[in-house]
From TrEMBL:
Annotated spans, Disordered: 1-39
Species of provenance: Mesorhizobium argentiipisi
Gene3D superfamilies assigned: VSR Endonuclease (3.40.960.10)
Protein name, entry field: DUF559 domain-containing protein
PANTHER family per record: BLL0828 PROTEIN
Ranges for domain DUF559: 40-143
Compositionally biased region (Low complexity): 1-15
Family matches, as InterPro entries: DUF559 (IPR007569), Endonuclease_DUF559_bact (IPR047216), Restrct_endonuc-II-like (IPR011335)
Amino acid sequence: MGAQDQSSSPPQSGGEVVRAKPETERGAAYQPSRRSPEKIARARALRSGDNQAEAILWNELKARRLGGYKFVRQMPIGPYFAGFACRSERLIVELDGSQHADSSYDRPRDEFMRGEGFSVLRFWSFDVLKNKRSVCETIFAALEGRLAEDVVAADLRFVFAARKTGDSAL
């Protein structure tokens, strides 16, 4: 091999191509995940345990199917997990079974979410199974800002969080 060949050829080791090391091995600062491994594992477990109503609603919300709004499932917010969340509009949608009737757990949870700048929209799981279109129309109304105050009805609860000027999406 001549001097020209050595200077223009990439280094070789036993016929293998030498690849660049990942950024973390090159000495770049370590960037931890926004979420702990425990919260990630818990969110995954919650997603895999969907009931029929949650599966039906997720089919309507995923892939920006509802008005182009992006939703995620089981998003951790503080010590809680939001069933369905639209980060850009700061809206959480929860489906409740009969175990949530007059639940003392849900009120402080909803107030925590409101304190974090999220509005919370709660439906009965039964309503998704029997009247999916109406549920989706109500979610869409909340996304568009047509629901702008707290609402408590037999079939829904909406905890409104006024958006602050300059709020940025998560």
